[in-house]
Amino acid sequence: MVDRLGTFDGVHRRNLSKLLALAHREGPLSRARLTAETGLNRSTVAALAAELVELGLVQEHAPDPTNRVGRPSPVVAVHPGVQAIAVNPEVDAVTVAAVGLNARIVVRERIDVDHLVTPEETADLVARVIARWRLAELADVRLIGAGLAVPGQVRQSDGLVRWAPHLEWTDAPVRALVEAATGLPTQVANDATLGARAEHLFGAGRGVDDLVYLNGGASGIGGGLVVEGRLVGGAHGYAGEFGQNRPGISRDGDRRAPEGVLEDEVSRARLLDAVGRASADEPTLAGLLAASDDPRVADELARQQRILATALGNAINVLNPSLIVLGGFLATLASWDPAALDAAVAAQALPVASEGLDIRVAELGENRLLIGAAELAFAALLADPLVASADAAHVD
């Protein structure tokens, strides 16, 4: 049905969307709080909440006992059975998760691989994981769709992976492949862009309108930008490729990759090599680096941190953010010597551009990309609960 501005149906759908989005982003809220947040009257909020309950999208329950006088307002919370599948294909593993509408990871599995997975293999692997989970963890779950966080350039208009160099994917129709294999509506976007979205909504960037997010993963470094509260994708969705910039390196001895880009110098693979490992997930790598007393490990951490500081200084001078969030192995670099990183960044950023700047590590940890991917899958539902609920029911 066409939503015409000002029609009763259009207003009704937008109000349903407002309530569901608030419960999604803020967690359980009382009807009184929803009334205050939306500006709607109490009876309208009660009717909308009841409709969302009937749609199976939220639950209402009594609030915790208090000593307050009067009848307490019922609490509205998203239904725990409404979930999405999130996927992050990488050079060393494919991670699949089921994520609730409350942005919580329900079940998560990392499948290590010894070769570069193809788009077809990725779709088949995801389908097999979902089929197994439907017999156990997801037996009574309503899956809304799937979202993929891909380390590459993804065309915003149709989700085509134009170029994922580390996976060796070019013009890969992974969205269509996953939809065909799983039967779920599927969306695809750049992994770092989705990390930025997740951290902005639920993590270290919550409530911050201007931030830069940098993601360090097995496939290199990507980024995402939030400007005036909006995620910036660029003309076609390719914005934020910080890892492809050529870094300024002030110390001759710091260069490891002549003519290389940032992700050639600031590299997870180099950190793994320093601790003598071929692969490891994020928490394992962070633990190995923290536990090492090898001076060569400390030297590599310091070298990468110096080069990262230059890249951050450039980003500050161009974008003037109030916050920089670092995820993945970049969070490990930042946590190794935060004072040294702050000092190195301050030395290379314009003082006026860096006033009040804060540098934080990603709060969502290794789940940030999966939560961001789930946001892709939930987007249609949050925009129009009536249409998306009907579509999801038809798929199930």
TrEMBL record:
Gene3D superfamilies for the chain: 3.30.420.40, Winged helix-like DNA-binding domain superfamily/Winged helix DNA-binding domain
SUPFAM superfamilies listed in its UniProt record: Actin-like ATPase domain, Winged helix' DNA-binding domain
Family membership noted in the UniProt record: Belongs to the ROK (NagC/XylR) family.
Residue ranges of domain HTH iclR-type in the record: 19-60
PANTHER family the record matches: BIFUNCTIONAL UDP-N-ACETYLGLUCOSAMINE 2-EPIMERASE_N-ACETYLMANNOSAMINE KINASE, ROK (REPRESSOR, ORF, KINASE) FAMILY
InterPro entries listed in its UniProt record: ATPase_NBD, ROK, Tscrpt_reg_IclR_N, WH-like_DNA-bd_sf, WH_DNA-bd_sf
Protein name (Swiss-Prot/TrEMBL): ROK family transcriptional regulator
